[in-house]
Amino acid sequence: MNHLVVGSTNPVKINAVRNHFVGEVIGVDVDSGVADQPWGDEETLLGAKQRARAALATSESEIGIGLEGGVQIIEEKLYVCNWGALVDKNGTEVIAGGARFPLPDNIKIMLEEGKELGPVISEYASRADVSKKEGAIGIFTNGTVSRTDMYDHLVSLLIGQYQFQMR
User: Cα(152)–Cα(29) distance, rounded to whole angstroms?
Assistant: First the structure.
């Protein structure tokens, strides 16, 4: 595979995919088809699938990858969730879910008011464009795990499953 397309222009997502491919990795701006701030596993997974499919449809690539971050309520706490999807020209689709971690209650309140996690975390951390850098996970793990690391793990799961299915 010499060419792969990612359904995002966010450098974090593109770099997570580039970590796994020798060939050309291109990010394209596609609509996830879900809310700017996905709530729940189902909506977040749907966003990942639709990003992968839309990315593949815009290119000559054999494979499209979609990565989507969202939030999920578990036992009254708000957690970050993330999903990935890999689709190929033959209709093969693999999915994987990634790391979860709780967010502070004051962030939960702001998101329930309709705000999006990225800008809220940037304001919380007093740093611009956190979602294109370390992400919320980088802030709340004190830099131990970055958003790229989180998506890198998802891409590993996607590729491993895909390779298993193709053997």
Answer: 20
